[in-house]
Amino acid sequence: MNRLSLRLRLTLAGAGAVTLAIALASLGLAALFAAHVERRAVAELSVQLDQVLAGIERDAAGALDLATAPADPRFQHPYGGLYWQLDAAGERLRSRSLWDYDLPLPPDLLHDGAAHVHRLPGPEGGELLAVERSVTLPARLGAVTLRAAVAMDRAELAEARTAFLRDLAPYSAVLALALMAAGWAQIAVGLRPLHAIRDRVTAVRTGRAARLGEEFPAEVRPLAAEVDALLAAREAELARARTRAGDLAHGLKTPLQALMGEAGRLRAGGRTEAADAIEEIAGAMRAHVERELARSRVAMQGRAARADVGQVVAGLIRVIGRTRAGAALDWRQEVPEGLIAAADPDDLAEALGALIENAAHFADARVTVAARRAGARVEIAIRDDGPGIAPDRIDALMARGARADTSGSGLGLAIARDIAEALDGSLTLHPADPGLEARLSVPRAEDPAL
């Protein structure tokens, strides 16, 4: 359940609540309808009872008789669903519909003219709704007290309630669907600030914004404030880390220069092996320092930086093209205009400069620098027409600390790879025919207008 989306959980909970509410409301309406129908049935039975009492007479033998029977034909059919019964001084009269069944009226003390409503067992195992009244007949009819009752099958009331529920069901379903749709719309509106937060976080991640801001509802604003505070703390920590890295690098430069000077004096004194060992150790230390400085600088820039790839490549070609190795080469630049990378121009120039300089070092006659947009990334390919590298050596060359030869190109390749990784990018080498192709992939900068 915890993995379900918040929208789905709220929708399911709302749908369940609406279904339960509609079901309870339908049952309540059915109960109200049944009570109303029963009241109407009691009223009709009272009218029928008045008609029965109005039709009482004495026959020629002096016995009570119902001279005028109610008009409803159900009184005439056995077990027809409507019944009357009269009890007076040991005499009992019944409707034809009762056939041989007597209404089991409960012992009840009734005042003259008072009426009571009973639920009685009926013929054939059914249940009856009965209205009973006690009346004193006039003197011409003997002035006796008469107990009269009219009853009907409650099955008719149950059928009416069932029919009501059946008719109510489609309207209840439509109402439930309408309420669920309204609830879904309410959830969509209520969760809209979360989409706004997602968009703002994306803007911060891609460099189009520095903070989430405060343009959110009061319930969401504390969350945005906490995220902004976290971003500020991270930036402060990165700044401190960069400062410490810079201090460390500057602190090591003087000892490294001293070591290099000592190596020069040893070499001048003929101690070449010791000088080579010191220069190798100092060079490795300088490589680590340069790489860590590059990483810390890129981490501070993040996605907020923007670099025009065409301008960076053009500047590098102008500079490297004036060197002794680059002046003799044919330089080709295939970079579309307006291609923007999410990187600091200096960082991108440092990474590409190492790759382009390496290509110029090994090229025979031509170096091609091409770039293209690949979805959310920028891919830059630097290709030379030199001797290349055997495919089985590429993985070893990409290993940390490896060198292509003894000319120092390994340091530039390592820095370029570290810059690419710090930018959430990658650097790969691929054999070409002829030569070698280095592919640098970095994130593409978002358009601020979007």
From TrEMBL:
It holds the Pfam family HATPase_c. One of its GO terms (biological process) is phosphorelay signal transduction system. Gene3D superfamilies: 1.10.287.130, Histidine kinase-like ATPase, C-terminal domain. It is found in: Membrane. GO terms for molecular function: protein histidine kinase activity. Residues 247-446 form the Histidine kinase domain. Keywords: Kinase, Membrane, Phosphoprotein, Transferase, Transmembrane, Transmembrane helix. Signal peptide: none annotated. It catalyses: ATP + protein L-histidine = ADP + protein N-phospho-L-histidine. GO terms for cellular component: plasma membrane. This is histidine kinase.
